[in-house]
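Example 9 (inverse folding). The structure is encoded as follows.
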């Protein structure tokens, strides 16, 4: 028995903060990623497809997207078992109920505890998010019948201690095991991976935010009576996010910064295509070094997206400045005297005043100074 399991596609996500065109492109990417997932169903000749919630975003999903999904699932010509997640809860009169689902698609209900759909000897149990938040209580009171292979389809947060009350539908791997499930086909965490040997998250097919640097896959599961399930995660994402820091220490001009950035980018593994990179420029640079982040975001680097944060600090030669017969020299001498005369706990504040004062006198824009 073979299953294709996916989750967290987040179709029609608005991608707040992006330009209208970029957000539209990202939404198209999500449809493409969903198609790539489904193409694995035929390629691996699976017996069933499971979807672990957050298929779309409830407040934004269009009727067209819902019907497009129904069409795509119908074309699979094999059973599809789904649960709704916290972003696409199964609400009375909501998007799920406004679609004519093909006969092969089975949406497990909300608010009736664990319900099952059988695919041969494989029994898929699950429950959807509904009008009220889903809890894992039903799992703790459940015991799977001894006949057949039982798996759990759930949109929730696996936590070893199950103490994270604020987490969405927190549950423990132990409760899954105790209930007699061979595997939990999970959704909600956007980083793919097998947790505690029994809870399988495929992750979202595409990363959706900067912090989603984990695996983004579709899962193929092989279940044979009695044998432990074989799981495989197949990467689906075309986009990936990474964050790096670039040491610009000692840079005498923007040319050195540019070189440090190019060097740092060249050490990142994998393809440039699809790479969305956030780089923080750090270190003490010469006071005359001017960093123009817009100019450094050269499209020629072949990255899909590059965001730069200039966190460099000028390396002022305090002793040299103190000796100068200038306003800057007088300022440095005055602050040095105040530091000398003050208590230890005042030093960080005065050091900061010295630093910011020098930068202001040097013409730095201090709007983003920390
Ligand atoms: Mn999600």
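The amino acid assigned to each position is listed next.
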């Amino acid at each position: 028995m073979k299953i294709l399991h996916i989750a967290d596609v987040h179709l029609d996500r608005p991608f707040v903060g992006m330009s209208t065109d970029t957000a539209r492109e990202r939404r198209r990417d999500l449809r493409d990623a969903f198609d790539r997932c489904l193409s694995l169903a035929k390629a691996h000749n699976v017996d069933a497809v499971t979807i672990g919630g957050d298929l779309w975003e409830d407040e934004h999903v269009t009727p067209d997207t819902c019907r497009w999904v129904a069409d795509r699932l119908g074309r699979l010509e094999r059973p599809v078992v789904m649960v709704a997640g916290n972003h696409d809860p199964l609400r009375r009169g909501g998007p799920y109920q406004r679609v004519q689902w093909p006969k092969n698609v089975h949406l497990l209900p909300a608010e009736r505890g664990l319900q099952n759909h059988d695919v041969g000897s494989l029994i898929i149990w699950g429950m959807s998010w509904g009008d009220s938040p889903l809890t894992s209580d039903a799992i703790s009171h459940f015991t799977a019948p001894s006949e057949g292979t039982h798996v759990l389809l759930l949109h929730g947060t696996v936590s070893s201690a199950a103490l994270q009350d604020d987490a969405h539908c927190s549950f423990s791997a132990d409760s899954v095991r105790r209930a007699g499930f061979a595997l939990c086909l999970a959704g909600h965490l956007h980083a793919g991976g097998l947790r505690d040997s029994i809870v399988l998250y495929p992750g979202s097919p595409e990363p959706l935010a900067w912090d989603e640097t984990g695996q983004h896959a579709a899962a193929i599961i092989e279940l044979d009576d009695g044998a432990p399930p074989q799981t495989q995660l197949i990467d689906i994402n075309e986009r990936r996010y990474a964050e790096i820091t670039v040491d610009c220490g000692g840079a005498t001009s923007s040319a050195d910064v540019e070189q440090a950035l190019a060097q740092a980018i060249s050490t990142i593994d994998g393809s440039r295509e699809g790479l969305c990179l956030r780089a923080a420029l750090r270190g003490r640079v010469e006071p005359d070094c001017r960093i123009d982040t817009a100019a450094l975001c050269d499209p020629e680097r072949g990255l899909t997206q590059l965001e730069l944060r200039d966190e460099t600090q000028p390396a002022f030669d305090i002793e040299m400045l103190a000796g100068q017969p200038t306003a800057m020299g007088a300022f440095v001498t005055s602050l040095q005297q105040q530091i000398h005369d003050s208590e230890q706990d005042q030093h960080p504040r005065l050091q900061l005043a010295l630093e910011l004062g020098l930068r202001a006198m040097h013409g730095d824009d201090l709007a983003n100074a920390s």
